[in-house]
Amino acid sequence: MLGLDGFSPELLGQLLEWSPTVIATKQTAGLLDNNGIKIDWIIAGDAHSSLQSDIKQMPAGNDTLAEAALKYLVTHNYPAVNIITDDLQLKDYLFYTDKINLVIFYADQKIYAVNSGFSKWKPAGEMLEVLTHPHELHVSGLEPMGNHRFKTTHDGFFSLQFDRPFLFIAEAL
Fold first, then answer.
1. What DSSP letter does each residue of 56-81 carry, written as one string?
2. CATH number of 9-106
3. Residue 98, exposed/middle/buried by CB under 10 A (0-12, 13-18, 19+)?
4. pTM of the full structure
5. What contacts 123, CB < 8 A, 6 or more positions away?
6. Helices (H) and strands (E) in the chain, counts
7. pLDDT at 107
8. Residues of the chain with CATH 3.40.50
9. Which residues of the chain, if any, have pLDDT below 50?
10. What is the pLDDT of residue 131?
11. Nearest-CA neighbor of 173 among 84, 78, 76, 93?
12. Integer Cα distance of 32 and 25 in angstroms
């Protein structure tokens, strides 16, 4: 967890129901510990003596904190990761989009990479934002709202076709 500012405790509880491996920064570790959440790794920092005794240290080296955690997860064959962050830097995730299923929680958005031909069922009136911009984007079931934002036109599937290997899209939480 790269940051928890404004993140819903209820949603955090839902993400932790499956007892995932929890990797945190020094900044978020204290908050997690205070809430009784077991931390497995702290990236690029020493665990405080008042925190849980079995926390392992993960050096970041020349990588960003996100890259260090993703390298560990990919190397150890994790199929998916939920990332909670207060500072969205999509460039940190580009290399990993085809190596691990990424879901990034930032502000009030759920962000993930999709391939061309992606489709998903949504109720009418739901908002979607395309965060990376292809030269050719074809949509169905979506109405453009400006600034790369779209609204679903009806209950049912929407789809995206584009000319890149993947796009990052964002849905409201």
1. EEE--TTS-HHHHHHHHHHHTT--EE
2. 3.40.50
3. exposed
4. 0.87
5. 152, 155
6. 3, 13
7. 87
8. 9-106
9. none
10. 95
11. 84
12. 10
